[in-house]
Protein: Formate dehydrogenase major subunit
Organism: Micromonospora purpureochromogenes
Amino acid sequence: MRLSVNDVSVEVAGGASVLDAVKAAGAVVPTLCYDERLTPQGSCRVCLVGVKGRAMPACTTPAAQGMAVRTDDPAARRSAQLALELLVSQLPARALDVPADRSELVRACQHFGVTASRFDGATRNAGVDHSHPYVKLDRDLCIACNRCVRMCAEVQGTFALSLAGRGFDTLVVAGTGGPWMSSPCVACGGCVDTCPSGALSEPGLLDPRPISWTTTTTCGYCGVGCTLRVHVRDNEVAAITPVHAAPVNRGHACVKGRFAHAFTRSRDRLTTPLIRRGGRKSPLEPTSWDEALTVVATRLAAIRDRHGPDAIGMISSARATNEENYLAQKFARAVLGTNNVDNCSRLCHAPSAVGLTASFGYAGGTNSVDDLDGTDCILIAGANPTEAHPVIGARIKQLVLRGARLVVIDPRRIDLAEMADVYVQAKPGSNVAVFNGIARVLLDEGYADEEFLRTRASGLAELTDLLRDYPVDHAARVAGVQPETLTMAARLYGTARRPAIVYGLGITEHAHGTDGVRTLANLAILKGAVGTPGCCGVLSMRGQNNVQGASDMGALPDMLPGYQHITNADVRARFARHWGVSVPERPGLRILEMFEAAIAGRVRAMYVIGEDIAQTDPDSGNVRKALAACDLVVSHDLFLSRTAHLADVVFPAVSFLEKDGTFVNFDRRVQRVRPALTPPGQAKPDFDILQLLAHTMGAELGCPTPADALAECATLTPTFAGISHARLDRDGPLHWPCRAEDQPGEGRLYLDSFATHDGRAALAARPYLPPGEQPDAAFPYVLITGRRLVHYNSGSMSRRTPNMELRPREVLDLHPDDGARLRIADGNLVEVTSRRTAVTFSVHLTDTVAPGQLFTSFNFPDTPTNALTSDVAETVTGCPEYKVTAVSLRPV
Ligand SMILES: Nc1nc2c(c(=O)[nH]1)N[C@H]1C(S)=C(S)[C@@H](COP(=O)(O)OP(=O)(O)OC[C@H]3O[C@@H](n4cnc5c(=O)[nH]c(N)nc54)[C@H](O)[C@@H]3O)O[C@H]1N2
Ligand SMILES: Nc1nc2c(c(=O)[nH]1)N[C@H]1C(S)=C(S)[C@@H](COP(=O)(O)OP(=O)(O)OC[C@H]3O[C@@H](n4cnc5c(=O)[nH]c(N)nc54)[C@H](O)[C@@H]3O)O[C@H]1N2
Ligand code: SF4
Ligand code: SF4
Ligand code: FES
Ligand SMILES: [Mo]
């Protein structure tokens, strides 16, 4: 519709407000209670404009065809100014001390010429609440605009805040009014970000000194890939805020990306290369880049010449950029001459890569996360997004609050289980039985899309045959749940118009993880909920910031970039031509196979980039044995990780805040990473380290810059052909596949056909097989391991931030009934013994775990969870069975 603002004609979409029209016309009205991320409230009245001689709040008045809006209407301006003066009359004048770029209130006062003389808040004196490390409240600056309360409810979904008191004394309170720290706040920072007056602030922004510069980049913690703005002062991060127009996070973030940046200036950062001069027993000492590079180059070359290139194993980093991963696999193949290169996706979503490829064609989720907006039913299986992918967890909460149905399948009563329509508390390792049981109900009760199955799917006969063995009673018995619960889950998914599946490591990190993915994918195929218009498909919640990209770039023993098979001679020839060297043909070793080969003496050197294998890989006793058996261990890290500690040479690397490149997030979006800080000391990006090392070995990797590396990858990889730094800088993030410069990336895949050999989605008939580790009389409990909100994987970064105040140590979750039986109280120490070793934990009694099951994370080196974990790995993919370890418990 068309209307005018100050005589300027503007066109706005239906549903737009007068404020939208004002903005479209380039005019300005101040706002205080308005935030584009929230439902408008229209309470502060500083946005009044003149419409037909009447003063109307721009934020809540709908724009109408032919409307004539005036922002300079004298009566409206006067009323707005009066509203503002009344509002500030309750505030102390120091409200004006907040820098204008951090206070909409100060900007509104400047707009109307309201000065300190109008402020008179001497009476309130309500004080500050600085109990929380990140959220700081100055009660006297609160203007009761309700934005923080709405942010916590409408965006974050935590409902931690409310307004309390009357009249001028109305104030925000957290939880039941005690200290912020004891409220249910999850430190997403949303309230701080929206507060217009400086009443809510954060440490780096309480400091009035100006910000030197800001950089827009992608979060380097989890695979959501939030777009963040980094505010830098004196080459230190002052604050990180979410970008409002960001495609994935839409102005939101979580405690890690938003606040956990202090690790960048930790005194533990590695600032020089380290080397052991007198063998393994001698200490790691600082050295020059020259010496470190020469030693590594010489020893790698010697091992290659003596034992062959396959005596070297390289682990590339899911934390590093695409460009660095591209170089790492090129280094392994073209300089060392081996396909022994792998990455951390082996430990998490390798079964997704194999399973999704077999079912649909590509090794990634089928849809863009934006498609969730259209869903009416979400089935979440083995994923805990409110802790592991918090921005998506928050989005899912909002979808459910707005009416989408929710099915949660998880052995633990996760946060989202509390709001689920159906919660299936299935036993760890029972996924295949559960999904087969649901599939059987979908078919038996007529929810399957027969047309879709006839024209676009294969394998129905075999599946129907197999499902004869999975009546819902049987499936429910295996899962340890009521048959009705499974039937209800199937009916909710079956009756939905646009059901979505969201899953995580609870499906993949099992002895039969690929079967889990395939049988889960079956549900979407049966329902015709993938590859069809408006569908929501199957989203795999990829973990690390760039675990998708590390695999996309070919840091895999059997694939070149873009999942092009190493065994395909044409593909190898294409790379060989471009690289000017031959590409080794035999698929290399996977991570866990490298350890076995090292113990057997076949692998003599391990080159590890940004992965703390000695802490995070399963059965870490075995990992240590493998590293000890090697002649050379090299680590690139930000810190002296457990692995770096065991290395012969350590290269100081830089973090995502200090480097240039791209990451691929969990929904296949390629996004730019830009340096905000200069690196500490002599630390260098992994990109530069690999270039220097190749050069020292007398080889050249080409692609002198990250932009060049992505360009080279695009030349050789059809699914990345249309993606370049220049285009990302110009157009913003792009989904792969993106096959040409002039094509948009494909968010929703397979609309025409599936990328399988026959173009059909492949149903899989897979029987349930029990987990690799079984509890018995000696080891009666099942230990599940996974994520906690505030810490991240090895904890190397999150432990070096004030997140430690939010969670200072690891705990073991135990059901209160088990606690009572074993006479273990909250906070007591227990020894947990698995078939490998024993580790002592402090107990947290909670009914989020089922009786007989335990849960913990792996973020703290002093409680080495992975010394305990199962040594079973899936045969197809080599993915470890992190989710099931049989253990016993003993109070100490
Ligand atoms: N805060 C935080 N966020 C993170 C990380 C972190 O360390 N901390 N790590 C990142 C990484 S690397 C990854 S891969 C992702 C992981 O993200 P998720 O996969 O969501 O995380 P997990 O907690 O490992 O596992 C998810 C759930 O699987 C459940 N589960 C275990 N066994 C089974 C089973 O047999 N069946 C079913 N249905 N469920 C089961 C667990 O109870 C758990 O709630 O998170 C990423 N984000
Ligand atoms: N028990 C149990 N264990 C698990 C899991 C589980 O569910 N249960 N999950 C597994 C999963 S899914 C994963 S992904 C792994 C994660 O395990 P890791 O990959 O080992 O853990 P991270 O802490 O993500 O990062 C590894 C190292 O990279 C460093 N680093 C960060 N950024 C950079 C960079 O840009 N360059 C370089 N060179 N180094 C960098 C960090 O300091 C850290 O030491 O853990 C696995 N381990
Ligand atoms: S930081 Fe987030 S969770 Fe905490 S009170 Fe503010 S909006 Fe709510
Ligand atoms: S949700 Fe993930 S990507 Fe977003 S801020 Fe948090 S850790 Fe970073
Ligand atoms: S911003 Fe419009 S009434 Fe507050
Ligand atoms: Mo992961």
